Amino acid sequence: QSALTQPASVSGSPGQSITISCTGTSSDVGSYNLVSWYQQHPGKAPKLMIYEGSKRPSGVSNRFSGSKSGNTASLTISGLQAEDEADYYCCSYAGSSTYVVFGGGTKLTVL
Amino acid sequence: QLQLQESGPGLVKPSETLSLTCTVSGGSISSSSYYWGWIRQPPGKGLEWIGSIYYSGSTYYNPSLKSRVTISVDTSKNQFSLKLSSVTAADTAVYYCAGGRRAAAGTMGWFDPWGQGTLVTVSS
What is the mean pLDDT of residues A6-14? Predict the structure, then answer.
């Protein structure tokens, strides 16, 4: 049982937009602007896509965007491309006793 | 450009101690910008944060693993290490080391970059 809840899978067609949710609590997502999102292709290490809720690292496409409302963070991918097919994980700082929690991951399929 | 590389045995016997090292290149492990972390991923499953260490030696552990985990740093070698004791088959996973960025408020923020990961199998 992961601390943050994500849908197991989402899908979309090329060119469409999809949103992946990440639901936590007032002790993690809701209390800190420290949600990050990672993309992981099979057999590869995770790659940072979004940090501090909505900021994109250099080199990450502006098709990726992040947001937060209350205890739920979201990752939106617009203009879906075949290369976006991967697993996506959210992560949040969770205070000075739990520190870091991950979501269970969401498998994105590009139809 | 900061790079991380894990090293250590790929096979550990049940009840023994798993030991891994992460070598940091392209930057100093004494940087105040990073909490150096370990994250694992059992086959076919999600990511689990194990723990992190600041260059000063302060450590932060996942409460569910705290009793079995020790993370240390060797600034002279630009390395940090993980020890996980009393392992069982449930500890079989790909283990990643990562640079945990320090957020503006001084807390742990996000992980970037990551090492390539190393598979550790617990089996007799």
Answer: 98
Q: Does B34 touch chain A (CB under 8 A)?
A: no
Q: Which among A86, A85, A78, A73 is positioned nearest to A45, based on CA atoms?
A: A86
By the CB < 8 Å criterion, does B35 face chain A? Answer: no
Q: Which two tokens stand for residue B22?
A: 């992460």
> Would the pLDDT of B17 be above 80?
yes
- Measured between CB atoms, which of A45, A93, A98 is closest to B109? A93
Q: Are strands A64-69 and A86-93 parallel, antiparallel or unpaired?
A: unpaired
Nearest chain B CA: its distance from A14 CA (Å):
26
Residue found by looking up tokens 């809840």 in the block: A5
Chain A residue with the nearest C-alpha to that of B119: A43
Task: Give the tens place of pLDDT for each residue, A68-88.
Answer: 999 999 999 999 999 999 999
- In this structure, the number of other CB atoms found within 10 A of the CB of residue B27 comes to 16
Beta strands in A9-104, from DSSP E residues, in sequence order? 9-12, 18-23, 35-40, 47-50, 64-69, 72-77, 86-93, 100-102
Over the stretch A46-65, which tens digit does the pLDDT of each residue have?
Answer: 999 999 999 999 999 999 99
Q: A100–B49: do the CB atoms touch at under 8 Å?
A: yes
Pairing of strands A72-77, B18-25: unpaired
Closest by alpha carbon to A89, among B45, B19, B76, B109?
B45
Q: How many CA atoms lie within 13 A of B70 on its CB side?
A: 7
Using CA of residue B75, residue B63, residue B65, residue B105, what is the dihedral sign?
Answer: negative
Which of A11, A6, A4 lies closest to A25, judged by CA? A4
